[in-house]
Every structure is written in C-alpha cells, then in structure tokens.
Design goal:
The structure is a single chain. It is built from eight helices and 19 strands. A hairpin with a 2-residue loop joins strand 1 (11-17) and strand 2 (20-26). The strands form five sheets. Strands 5-6-10-9-8-7 form a six-stranded antiparallel beta sheet. 39% of the residues are buried. The chain folds into two domains: 3-49 and 197-361, Peptide Methionine Sulfoxide Reductase, Chain A, CATH 3.30.1060.10; 61-194, Metal Binding Protein, Guanine Nucleotide Exchange Factor, Chain A. The protein is an alpha+beta fold and 364 residues long. Bound molecules: zinc ion. Zinc ion is lined by residues 103, 105-106, 108, 152, 154-155, 157.
Length: 364
Amino acid sequence: MSGLTLRNIVLAFVGFFLGGAIIFTAHSMAGAPAQRTHMKTTDQGTPRYSAAGYDITRLSAERVNQLAEKLTPEQRRIMLDKGTERPFCGNLLDNKKQGTYCCALCDLPLFTSGHKFDSGTGWPSFFTPYDKDHVATEIDRSYGMVRTEILCARCDSHLGHVFDDGPRPSGLRFCVNSESLVFYEDGEELPPGAKPVQTATAYFAGGCFWGIEYHFEQFPGVLDAVSGYQGGRVENPTYRQVSYEKTGHAEVVMVTFDPARVSYRTLLRAFFAMHDPTQLNRQGPDIGEQYRSAIFAADEKQLEEARDYIRTLTEAGTFGRPIVTQITLATDHKFYEAEEYHQDYVARTGRACHAMRPLSELPE
Ligand SMILES: [Zn+2]
C-alpha cells in the first residue's frame, strides 16, 4: 500500500500514547499554486520578520522612548506626534545619491534611492517601499480628509502618507518627511538596526511535510519554512518519484531561523512535539520511507545537540517506546525544494495536519 494512495483519500488517524494524542490526517494532492506568505500577523512582542529578512518585531513603548532620546524636537513632533514638515524644506528632498533611507528612530530600511522620484510636491517621494513589510499603513481622518498614513512597521513612527497618484509600476506615491528618515549612501557602514538578521538553517523530517512546515512557519523565531526532499539518491526529485520510486528521499522541511530569538534545541523540542518519533518509516496513515523521522544536522554542533536531545527524551521516557529518528549531516545530503503547490499547503487549504502537542509536555 503506497502512501500516495492513502493520501488521495482524506482520512484521519488518531494515535494515542501517554494519555496524549497526535492527530495525523492524510490529504489529496490537489491544490492551486499560490503566492508564498512571508508576513505573519502576530501580536506585539512576538518575533516578526520581513520577506527581506529583517527583524520587524514591534518595539515596546519603553524601547521606543529610549531610542527617541536621540531625536531632535522637530523629529519628535513629526515622528511621535504625527506632524508634517513644511514642503520644499526637507534635507532629503533633492538628495540624488544612491543609497538607503532608514527610519530615523529605529534604523529599519524603509526606502531606497532606486524608488525615489520627483513628485513636485515638496516632500521626498517614493513609488514603493524597501520591503512592503517595513511600512505599515493606517487610515487617517484628520483635517477633514481621508488619507492613508504610513508608519514604520517596527517602531510605529509616523513617516507621512501614501497616495494613489504615483508613477508606474506601482501607481503609488509614498510622501515622506525628511525628518523621519536617515540616509546611508551605498558603501557606508550601516547601523545594526539597518541590517538583516543573521539566520541559521535546520532540516527536519517528520512525515508529511505539509504539517511540519505549517507548525514551523508559526513558530516564534522562525523566518521561513520550506517543504522539500532530502536524504536520497536522486537529484532534483519530483513528488511523484519520491512517492512511487525508491529514491531514498524523505519529505523534509528546511527551517530558516533567528538564533538570537530561538535556539536549535527549542526547535528540536518543537519538532518532537509535532510528530511521533517512535514510528518507523511511517507517520500515522502515511506509510513509506519518505515519511521517516529524520534530522539533517547543518553542522557537527547541531548533530551533537540532536543526539543530546534524543538522549534527554529517552531518559524522560516521553514517548514510552524507542525513538527511531535518524540523524545525519545535511552536508552529506542536498536539500531539494518541493514543487510550488506543496508550499504553504495547510495555510492555503485550511486543512488540519499534524496536531502539535504543547511544548510543556516535552523536556527542555
Ligand atoms: Zn522605525
């Protein structure tokens, strides 16, 4: 019985152990390709990352106050009290240099010289932001007008407004106060707040990659999770090959994370909360080598940490039965990204997949 056959029939399997339950659901392969989602809608304080790889976690009011100490009174009036500078007066209006325009409060890159144009309005104008996740918008009904205010997505500082009379290709005009921006010319050293996150990578196989990918996408400190194939002998495998042929590949999720916000050990803990590592070459109704439990360590340090965490789980008796998770080095096994229709599958279809146990049920 192949895993694919089972997957074409939507069925649910409930595996009980130790009083807890993990629910596995097999799914049909259907699903229209869709845009990858990067932006997460999360609360203040929860780590958020932009598509460009920046930490855009909302700063606390305390941190904003701290950073605001360096602002001039005019910057405070504009950025914190939503003021507007007089037209044709800003120091960046006529700036033609190549470089990046960052938030004057938190240094997040907001616009680039490549998107700047002369709107004739008297304020620096851009047709698109540096990254759409970096600029937030809000409806502004002040002065008897309905306008769209733009704010720094990380520190919530007022930047200006956006109008729909801009040039192509966006048709938008981001009208920004010079006082809200700090310009860094290309080649100039950027402050830490203007740099993207130094990320690390981890690879996990725990049955159908749809559910594993979904849970890692949601996990605090994770920038991105991508479904793929790893550990086999065939180059550039297709889903069909992995499902029907003996490729040796496992369904794997590549996790890009921020080590400053989440440790590899915490990701290991999450991984074991997402699947049952005592099932050999299967995960619930999904049967086959491609559904094996495996960790592909990015380096020797991860390898040791993975072994150590499995020892901890074994000593704690968390799963009651022997853990069969394979551990190998990712450097010996190239990761191949899966077809587009497998990415963000659970998020797009709304289908429940692996249910995740509370982390508190697993040792730290
Ligand atoms: Zn900011």
